[in-house]
Amino acid sequence: MSRTTTVPPCRICGGGLQEFFDFGKQPMANAYRTPGEPGEAFTFRLAGGICDRCTTVQLLEEAPHDRMFHGGYPYRSSGSSVMRSHFEQLADTFLATELDRPDPFIVELGSNDGIMLRKIAAAGVRHLGVEPCDDLAETGRRNGIRVCNEFFDEELGKRIREEDGPADVVFAANTFSHISFLDSVLRGIDALLAPHGVFVFEDPYFGDIVRKTSFDQIYDEHIFFFTVRSVKYMAAAHGFELVDAERLPVHGGEIRYTLARPGTRAVQPSVRTLLAEEEKAGLADPATLRRFSDDVRRVCTDLVSLLRALREDGRTVVGYGATAKSATLLNLCGIGPELLSYVCDTTPAKQGRLTPGTGIPIRSPRAFTEEFPDYALLLAWNHAEEIKSKESAFVASGGRWIEYVPDVRISAT
Ligand code: DWN
Ligand code: SAH
Ligand code: ZN
């Protein structure tokens, strides 16, 4: 587990980090290259460890924050109908609970294309999306939401409080885990939140990553991998209390955490239940983490053997969904255009470009439906149900999905 390279201290508590995986040099996951352009300018060592004090799992090295999130950042949250209804439901819940008071105010960090706030805006409720990527901020505005086109940190939290007053809710989905300077972000939330307010955030659950060997959740943008235990520690260290933790099925398994000022809310039983489950699963035990690393190697070996065998057999194989996650899978396994002819994806900004580090062409899903391949590697495995039902004609015509979470298999449905 220990290495000779220098390991930085924990970003949450300053404790020691015990390295337990090293996926080698990796590019940034959303840095799609245009054909003919020189290779990726930035790579970093994608390795991670667990803190021996607060147990927060985190990357050891990081990519510069403003290099990951900028005008050309391609991810559009509304590309999945399941995610659209997930966030519509949450907006309805907020409207009926936390925002059911005179002149309520909600702030969302990482509002992206407005997938969640548009429903809040339509209800006429005061809100602000914080979205540093210019194109996305503009798309959010076109979708009817009010957006601040900046990075959230302590200074911005204080400024929003001065200009708009205290927030009843601060919300962040798949964003809090993406920010290395969480101490500043938490101070900003502290400044912004009303005394009775809540900070709600949802991110991939480390318990699910270990259970499903979904190691492709690990890439530059995902700096932290939370558990209930580590979030409880972080909340207390920053003057908050973890009052609720709800498991979510989306994005391969997440938890929605609710933080409040200490003593203002009853702590829900789910917190204790999940803490006990984590203890039983040994999520912070070196043996569990070693097993995770072994499982990753096994999945990579199995997948590469399968793809090579299919290729030698003359079968056509493509990838489905140019996900950020797939950058880790493809680079770690060394899968390039010789094993996957192309990857199809609905995102216009990804089409016509190449997967980072591995140079596989990205094409529109039309390429897929016009001429079905023999096999499709489901890179967007977290959207399996949605994609499989949309592409039911593929299997009906004899095509087969290849899946790799939790292990490598060919599925006929
Ligand atoms: O945390 C993050 C999550 C929320 O989004 C970010 N760091 C970056 C991004 O990660 P990702 O790219 O792994 O997310 P998805 O949602 O798994 O990406 C799905 C990809 O597949 C998108 O590029 C859209 C595409 N897609 C498609 O081609 N057909 C998706 C669906 C549902 C489809 O039917
Ligand atoms: N909330 C959306 C988007 C997740 S992608 C969803 O769940 O689908 C992560 C988003 O966080 C991007 O839109 C990115 O621009 C934004 N982001 C990254 N750093 C941020 C920061 N410091 N403050 C606010 N948003 C940030
Ligand atoms: Zn720590």
TrEMBL record:
| Ranges where the C-methyltransferase domain occurs | 249-406
The Methyltransferase putative zinc binding domain sits at 10-69
In terms of CDD domains, this protein maps to: AdoMet_MTases
GO MF terms held by the record: methyltransferase activity
Domain of life of the organism encoding this protein: Bacteria
Q: Which residues cross the membrane?
A: none
Pfam families the record matches: Methyltransf_13, Methyltransf_14, Methyltransf_23
Q: A GO BP term, please? A: methylation
Q: Which UniProt keywords apply?
A: Methyltransferase, Transferase
Entry's PANTHER family? BLL5978 PROTEIN, TRANS-ACONITATE 2-METHYLTRANSFERASE-RELATED
How is this protein named in the record?
A: Class I SAM-dependent methyltransferase
Q: Which organism is it from?
A: Streptomyces achromogenes
